[in-house]
Amino acid sequence: VQLQASGGGLVQPGSSLRLSCVASGFSLDYFTMGWFRQAPGKAREGVACIDKSDGSPYYADSVKGRFTISRDNAKNTVYLQMNSLEPEDTAVYYCAADFTLTAQAMGTYPEGNMDVWGEGTQVTVSS
What pLDDT does residue 102 have? Predict the structure, then answer.
C-alpha cells in the first residue's frame, strides 16, 4: 500500500505546476484523497481534498481560485493543478488517502490520522 507523489520543482512566482499522486496496492475508488503541505517551522496545512463519494472538493482559503484537485480512478491517480504560484506556496506537498473521512473533514483536520500517507514532493516558488 503506497502513495507516490511527484511533480514538484523550483518555479518563479506566477508559474504553474501539476502534482501527481499515484496509488499502488489499493484502489483510489474507495478513498477520499487529499493534498497537504508543510513549510519549515509551520504546521501541516490541508490544501485540497476530493471526496470519494461525489467528488466534491475542499480547498484551503489560501489556494481557492488558484489550485484544482482532480482524480482519475482509472489511472489510480490524483492531481493538484497549481496556478499563479506564490512564494507562500513553498512547502513540501504530501498526498494522503482516507477511507472514512469526507473531503471537508480531511482538509479541516490535517493532523488527522489518515489511512495512507505518501512521501512528499518539494515545491519552491522563488524569483
Answer: 95
